[in-house]
User: Fold this.
Amino acid sequence: MRRFVVLAHKVPTSGEFSLNDLPGTAGRIDVLCRAVGAGLFVSHGVRTDTEVTLLVQNSVQIRIAGDRVKRLNPDERSTAAILQIALRGAALEEVETTPGVVASQSSLSQVLDRLYQLEAHPVVLHEQGNPIEGFSVPANPAFILSDHEDFTDEDETALADLPHLSLGPMPLHTSQCITIVHYLLDREEGDVAADLVLCHKVWGEPKARLITGLLEDFGIPSNLLSHAVPSLYPGMMNGLGEVRIMVRPRDLERARAIIGDYFEHPVDE
Ligand SMILES: C[S@@+](CC[C@H](N)C(=O)[O-])C[C@H]1O[C@@H](n2cnc3c(N)ncnc32)[C@H](O)[C@@H]1O
Assistant:
């Protein structure tokens, strides 16, 4: 399950605003609507493995579950209408205000407690965090973002112990960050599911290691598969069997070009 938690700082918790003025009296609820869309929609469908939580002014929580939500459309106005119903209906106990949308009075620490109970792993998305590239995103991640404003000091204190990850030095919109995270996780899941493919065959492990080192310099991970050729003189093999260099399907073309530039024309049969 993927989760996104957006901390909203200006949306009126009462839900009293005009749907004709989303960026104004509605306290930039348009930012939340776009975040919900980025979190849950794909072309012609909804991500059933994703949940978006909006925490409004550290006092009302609205949770939208991709596997249960109904009547959610990609336009901001109708999403704002669903959020308005949720804000108006929020009570001490959780209430399902429209199908798949649950609202309750809640604070950031309560949101975090629920995540821990679900064995989710919260991480903060922050412009000044550590680069996400070097971070191994845990299973069941929950990404916490702010809305159009920076995290408040109070938010920062509550989130201080969590990993802070950056998507680069460029300040992005909340919805853009969510799209990028989905892209990275989709790609990672694709890599795990896809079998490695043969990129090149060489004789002997030392040469194979030279090539994998080069590929690594270009950010391409690879695996070696050794095929020891049966010999009359097994004692003389000394690792000089055939070694297959295997890469991810999406790296194949680039890896072959690099090997071709630095070593030799790759052999892939
Ligand atoms: C529009 S930004 C907040 C305001 C922003 N600091 C500014 O003044 O432009 C919304 C949120 O998206 C996330 N965010 C934006 N850019 C990011 C980046 N480069 N890396 C990681 N998270 C980012 C953060 O959670 C941020 O609080």
Observations:
- The mean pLDDT is 93.
- The radius of gyration is 25 Å.
- The pocket of S-adenosylmethionine is lined by residues 125-127, 145-146, 148-151, 166-168, 170-174, 177 (CB under 6 Å).
- The chain has two domains: 2-192, 197-262.
